[in-house]
Amino acid sequence: MQMTSSFEPDFADPAEWARMYRSFGFQVVPAMSHRENRQQWKRPALPKWRALEHELAPDLTFERWYGEGGEHSRRNNMGMIAGACSGGIFVVDLDIHKHDGAKGWWQEMLDQQTKAGQLETVEQVTGGGGLQLFFRAPPDWMPPTCKTSIGVDIRGQGGFAMMPPSMHESGKRYWWKVGHEPWEMEIAEAPPWLCDAITELAIKFGGASGVNRVTGQREVTSSPGYTTNAFGMIVDGREDYMTRTVWAAVVDAKRDCPITLSRADSTALMMEAFGNYERRVRSRVVLQGFSNAELLEREGRGISLFMDKWEAAVDQWHDKVAVAAEVPKPARPFDEPEAPKFKGYTFDEETGELTPLGEAKSDADPSIPKTDAVLFKFKDIKAMRAEPKPVYMIEGIAIEKALGFVFGPPGCGKSFLTIGMALSIAAFVGQWFSHDIKRGGPVIYISSEGTGDMVNRIDAWEKEVGVKVEDLPFYLIDQSINFMLPTDVDKLVKTVAAITKLTGQSPVAIFVDTVSRVLPGADENLQKDMTLFIMACDILRTTFHATVIGVHHTSRAGNLRGSTVFDGAGDFLLGIEREEGQTVGTIHAKKIKSAKDGWDLPFELKTVAVNDITGESSLVAIPCETPEKKASTWPPREACKKILQAISTAWHSGKPWSPYPQTRKQGRYAASIIKQQFDVSEKVAENMIDTWLNNQVLSYEMADKHAKMQGLKVTGSID
Question: How many whole angstroms separate alpha carbon 284 and alpha carbon 276?
Fold first, then answer.
């Protein structure tokens, strides 16, 4: 491809820059700015950009981004996806401005030149002050994609590099080095010696300082020095752990069978090892809707880097791997915890004595130990009957100290329902959707989304229900809370305790809207993560004897999203359904542990004006008659008379209505017209027409012989 001669870098707009890059075969894509994502802004501004790694995006896709009026035609930040999609281009990123290791390594490369110009290639200065050199990979070599501990990063297959006219977070733009612009010189093919040096660099310095990337051994200390989160997941030192995982798996494979691995066997072993790695580490990127594996890949700590390290280790199969395999397998690699060991016992029925296997019988009193510390508490039926019976907070739905979930797709109205439920409990009104409220009191509502409209929602509920809310014990916590962090959970417990002290009463209910918002970075499908969330909810329940209600989303299948831990732990599950554009929806009792479930309750989202001066309004969820009942109920007699009058008017106008659906396209289908003009369901309208025809209130006659048009004629009355 050739650049168009009209390109002027000093005057070009973003779309012209993008077209220039594409003319050279670069996979240029829109990129985020640091204002959009301060932690991970050097990324494509596309949700599924990984699908673009292997071939140049189609022209139609590029035009959608950068064509006239394109989605990103005014976005300054852009970059290139390296590798096959850009004709084999890779980038050497040098932080020589702040890292002596990078400066020294690059000086070694310059010293190794065998002829002048061998390293002369396209080069840019980053907004942060570093250098990036663009090379093409020779056909027989694949550059790695990795970050090193000496300030040299390699952006190979699937790597990403920001490019001019992008703006750096420092406020400076990326710019091409004078004389080294892509329109001034060719991108050089990397010489073999440079390829070898890059491979050695990735193997030796691909992670934490002091780690040999081939042997997996530290040069200074044997301690891996990982940093873990509060739940033991590795969040720092992950690349070191990845390398050691790869090395151990390859060496184990050599111990099991010295024959060179086939491609299929190597891939299978690699994926098994990656699964072990992925379960032990946690991404530091927080993005809802992405799995831990996907977020690790975004960080450059995922499957792509794992594959590179695996191939580098397998390449050592006959030398360094073979030497390492001669050493016996360590009992506890990587400081992994030992598996729990369970004791075995023998039990003497006559004496009731337990004796651990392999130990002699004790000469001590064989009776059951007198201290309760070694036993779980147990109860007989008499003791169970003596305990207080469960007390309902909302009869037939939620008992005291329960855990429940209200779930549904986005926009179904679940938050309006739970806000109404919370206010009803706080006000101790008689019922919530025909279910008696048995216990009222303080309510705490945790929500960090949509809180700007919270006051309007509360005011709409006040107007509709007729209960003053000013002095209700309803408290909103609108800050971000991470239920996966013990420090945040501890802070929340202390906050609830402070509210309890303020009101003089423990909260009756604590709402979490939404569950996803309090699980940043967690994998909702991972049982281990969700068990921790349930534990955090249990702390709130048991500490304050409150019912905890989570507001959650549905999966694509329409079920409660995430691990089955939710379904098992929930004392009640209420599913919310509402078709888009409809004001009426349904509450479905999927599970009520303490009462009958399977029932449905209809609700309506009603618009209520909350400020006549500004015209503000909000929705409020209110009970309504069942859709089935509404679908089978005729309108009042006066409305029926008006419908018959409209049918008569249509007959005399020469455009009579028809009882047959095939006339719908002509705009004459009676049931459809009645639905539109009189707010009657089509099914009811059809029933009305059939009934009137059968009872001679209507007839079907020829209205226009020339046009051969037939239709409905009013021939009777309903008085």
Answer: 18
Rounded alpha-carbon distances, angstroms, from residue 131 to 93, 179, 300, 353, 397: 6, 14, 20, 75, 63
Burial of residue 255 (number of CB atoms within 10 Å: 0-12, 13-18, 19+) = middle
**CA-based nearest residue to 461, from 587, 605, 627, 614:** 605
Q: Does residue 446 contact residue 454 with C-beta atoms inside 8 Å?
A: no
Distance, C-alpha 603 to centroid of its chain:
28
Helix (H, G, I), strand (E, B) or coil at 420: helix
In the sheet that 509-513 helps form, which strands lie side by side, from edge to edge?
A: 474-477, 443-447, 509-513, 547-552, 403-407, 572-577, 584-592, 600-611, 616-623
User: What is the rounded distance in angstroms from the CA atom of residue 310 to the CA atom of residue 501?
Assistant: 58
Rounded-to-integer distance, Cα 555 and Cα 561, Å: 4
Are the C-beta atoms of 458 and 423 separated by less than 8 Å? yes
Written as six digits, the tokens of 52 are: 């673009």
- Report yes or no: 584 and 624 within 8 Å, Cβ to Cβ: yes
Residue 325's Cα: distance from chain center in Å?
41
Number of C-beta neighbours around residue 493 at 10 A: 15
Chain-centroid distance of CA 6 in Å reads 44
Instruction: State in Å, rounded, how far the first CA of the chain is from the last one.
Output: 83
**From CA 98, how far away is CA 100, in angstroms rounded?**
7
- Whole-angstrom Cα distance, residue 678 to residue 533? 50
DSSP 41-68: -SSBS-TTGGGGSSSPPPHHHHHHHHST
Maximum C-alpha span of the chain: 115
Q: Which tens digit of pLDDT belongs to each residue from 204-248?
A: 776 433 333 333 333 333 334 455 554 556 777 788 888 889 998
Q: What is the pLDDT of residue 472?
A: 94
Give the C-alpha separation, 411 to 416, whole Å: 10
pLDDT grade, residue 643 (50/70/90)? very high
d(Cα 658, Cα 665) in Å, to the nearest integer?
A: 11
Do residues 212 and 313 lie in contact, with contact meaning Cβ atoms separated by under 8 Å? no
H/E stretch holding 132: strand 131-136
Residue with tokens 């980053």: 126
Q: How far is CA 299 from CA 65, 329, 354, in A?
A: 25, 32, 53
C-alpha distances out from residue 606 to 127, 263, 415, 457, 623, Å: 52, 62, 14, 11, 10
Distance CA 8, CA 240 (A): 46
- List 514's β-bridge partners, or say none: none
Give how far Cα 669 sits from Cα of 639, 640, 706, Å: 19, 17, 21
Give the count of beta carbons closer than 10 Å to the beta carbon of residue 286.
Answer: 15
Cβ atoms within 10 Å of 500's Cβ, excluding its own:
17
pLDDT digits (tens, 9 = 90+) for 157-168: 889 999 999 998
Q: Which amino acid is at 69?
A: G
Amino acid residing at 549: I
Q: What single-letter DSSP state applies at residue 199?
A: H
pTM of the model: 0.45
Higher pLDDT pick, 493 / 34: 493
Residue 201 confidence (pLDDT) = 86
Q: Which amino acid is at 708?
A: K
Which residues does 162 contact at the CB level (< 8 Å), separation at least 6?
Answer: 31, 42, 77, 78, 79, 126, 127, 168, 174
Q: Per DSSP, what are the bridge partners of residue 710?
A: 702
Instruction: Report whether 183 contacts 109 (CB < 8 A).
Output: no
